[in-house]
Write a structure and sequence with these properties.
Elements lengths: L11 H14 L21 H15 L4 E7 L2 H7 L11 E5 L5 E5 L3 H7 L5 E5 L5 H10 L5 E4 L5 H10 L6 E3 L1 H8 L4 H22 L8 H14 L3 E9 L19 E11 L2 E2 L2 E7 L4 H20 L6 H14 L16 E3 L6 E5 L12 E4 L3 E3 L3 E3 L3 E6 L2 E4 L12
Parallel strand pairs: 1-5, 3-4, 5-6
Antiparallel strand pairs: 1-2, 2-3, 7-8, 8-9, 8-10, 11-12, 13-16, 14-15, 16-17
Helix pairs in contact: 1-9, 2-7, 5-6, 8-9, 10-11
Length: about 425
Amino acid sequence: MRSITRRAFVGASAAGAAVAAAMAGAAGKDSTRKLKSLSAAAEPISAAEHRARLEKLQSLMAPHHTAALLVEAGSSLEYFTGVHWWRSERTTAALIPAQGQPVIVTPYFEEPSIRETLKVSADVRPWKEDESPFELLAAALQGLPAGALAVEPTTRFFILERVTRAANNKREVSAGDELVRACRLLKSPAELALMQSANDITLAAIRQVHGSLRAGMHSTEILKLLVATTEQLGGQHEFTLVLLNEASAFPHGSVQPQTLREGSVVLIDSGCSVYGYQSDISRSWVFGHPSSRQREVWNTVKRGQEIVLETARPGAPAGAVDRAVRAYYEQLGWSRDYGLPGLSHRTGHGIGLDGHEPPYLVRSDTTLLEAGMCFSDEPGLYIPGEFGIRLEDCWYMSAGGPKLFTPLARSLDQPV
């Protein structure tokens, strides 16, 4: 698998060189051309919107007899407070009470950085290297009225265990999934605008790379080119998969090295973020002249994407979308029940501050679709030992039906 994340990718200068080399090698390309940022006009989520999110969360706690929500650093902490931070052995977390301002604990030397992205009024309680953040959270919890301690679903167990132990295990602990989901499921106009910007950037980056490929390129060269192009266009690169030849039959890639040759299937799956909100786009094409089999599979996947958009309607269960695509594939002879050759993964996933988040376009998901939900549309087909085709665009549900962030690929000959 050839993938890269923001934290893993450190060779920015090397990637920049890859861009120049690839551009120089592509006929008619000006290697000195600077790409224009597509995110210059993007606006971050306002402090007022963050405050409204907190108010909604707190309004949902009372009916559930919840005293507070424990949230570790991550996308939910960013969603409710604006604090953009990573996870490590040094705990940064918040206790959000049903009434009053959040208590945020963080290492003493990180406090100035935490305050840079904090968008709401909060009681920041720093802890020094020989002190316990769990004691600080427990003290904040002990001062609250009766009620359960809800836990944000991705919070690591050791944090919960040490906080409850420090608080003498006097409170019921409950899952905070539904509280968080009720707040994050439907995207606001400001969130949709940021996702639009991110999707515009990713599609433009793939388009640039599509026009710059040459025989003999290794998948890592293509990856570096795409990363650097994404960043030139104003996106914060999040991930990229570059799957060539037989590796394209593995949805998330193969460890076997691959190079570009005549007839290669090229599958690129990439995403970036703009002020935290993510894109996720895949394009597949053939380098050189496609076979009739490659063209047939590509056209089938394109029709699968269209079926997603035709089936998804407000009030319909998310799983119905997945079932509709599978019914079409199965009548053509592809494997049933997520088997191979066929569509071995769900038809799509929710997306927002996280690249993958609820709800999911999988046949077991009974969530009713609502305006404001955002998804990927990626009903790929994979033939082990041969190749795979995945086309992916993101969309959001409006009152009148699905709205794409990016247009579907036109054809195998015009994939971007």
